[in-house]
UniProtKB/TrEMBL annotation:
It comes from Brevibacterium celere. This is Amino acid ABC transporter substrate-binding protein (PAAT family). It comes from the Bacteria. The keyword Transmembrane helix does not apply. Residues 1-28 form the signal peptide. Residues 57-276 form the Solute-binding protein family 3/N-terminal domain. Keywords: Signal. InterPro entries: Solute-binding_3/MltF_N. The keyword Signal applies. Pfam families: SBP_bac_3 (PF00497).
Length: 287
């Protein structure tokens, strides 16, 4: 799922992080509230019991880059972000020593083709179709579909159907755009988010439609070159993915439920999303 100089740097090194098998790990510390990368993990160590796919570490699948959700562009560089710190907190509560990050294909992840992971956190919207091939946790974040354009593009609710739009393969926008936006010309599809973002920046497409919580991060990093001009209320919610029938799902659900109850998710939003987005997503006008 898914910068100016930042975006160019991301694209230039894309070959380094697009490999579906790349991975890296970071050491966890032992006490609640202590640093885990740049995270502050919370809760009681050992409050859940997991049987991880690799001894001593929580293996987490995701799709990089993903500003605000994962700080860093390759598994070895990840030091923070909403979902990384969510994973770090789960690892801590399971008494594990580290998190191992696997950078995988988003399309393959939601199709149930990725193997050898404990949990996947990649801003994945829960849908009935996906639920047939993967198991979802309870929701941990609500999102809408944002419209990312060049600054001063003039894209409005009235003319967006006349513009060339872009969507990423495997995302809910693939069906949402033709069914709800109904553009006059077929939306272009992209295999990855960074390719789609680059297409907006270069003028190959007029707008990219992707989760507001994702495109805001790219807009914030673009130095004013890109902006999110609006969003659609799609009723989407993000859930963690577990391998179908995974023995750990009950304990992972227990951790996620506890993180709702104890305010961990509110703290993660305040720490990682508000600053990275540069704006409150709720202030983006609805199309």
């Amino acid at each position: 799922m898914r910068t100016s100089t930042t975006m160019i740097a991301v694209v230039a090194v894309s070959a380094l992080f697009l490999s579906a098998c790349s991975s890296g790990s970071a050491d966890a510390s032992g006490d609640a509230g202590s640093a885990f990368g740049e995270c502050e993990v919370t809760g009681e160590a050992g409050s859940i019991t997991l049987d991880p796919v690799a001894d001593g570490t929580l293996t987490v699948a995701t799709n990089l880059p993903s500003p605000a959700w994962w700080k860093g562009i390759s598994p070895e560089e990840i030091t923070g972000g909403y979902e990384y710190c969510m994973a770090a907190t789960i690892a801590h509560r399971a008494g594990l020593e580290s998190v191992t990050v696997k950078n995988v294909s988003f399309d393959g992840l939601v199709a149930g083709q990725v193997k050898d992971f404990d949990i996947a956190l990649a801003q994945v919207s829960i849908t009935e179709e996906r639920d047939k091939v993967v198991d979802f946790s309870e929701p941990y974040y609500s999102s809408k579909i944002g419209v990312l354009t060049q600054a001063d593009s003039g894209v409005t609710p009235e003319n967006i159907a006349d513009r060339q739009l872009g969507v990423q393969v495997g995302t809910t926008a693939v069906d949402f755009v033709p069914e709800t936006v109904a553009p006059k010309q077929e939306a272009r599809t992209f295999q990855d988010t960074e390719g789609m973002i680059t297409a907006v920046q270069s003028g190959q497409i007029d707008a990219a439609l992707q989760d507001t919580a994702i495109v805001l991060g790219f807009a914030q990093q673009s130095g004013g070159a890109l902006e999110v001009v609006g969003q659609y209320d799609s009723g989407e919610e993000y859930g963690a993915i577990y391998p179908q029938g995974a023995a750990n799902s009950g304990e992972l659900d227990k951790a996620i439920s506890a993180m709702h109850d104890d305010g961990t998710f509110d703290a993660l939003s305040a720490a990682w999303l508000a600053e990275a987005f540069g704006t409150d997503p709720n202030t983006i006008p609805e199309f």
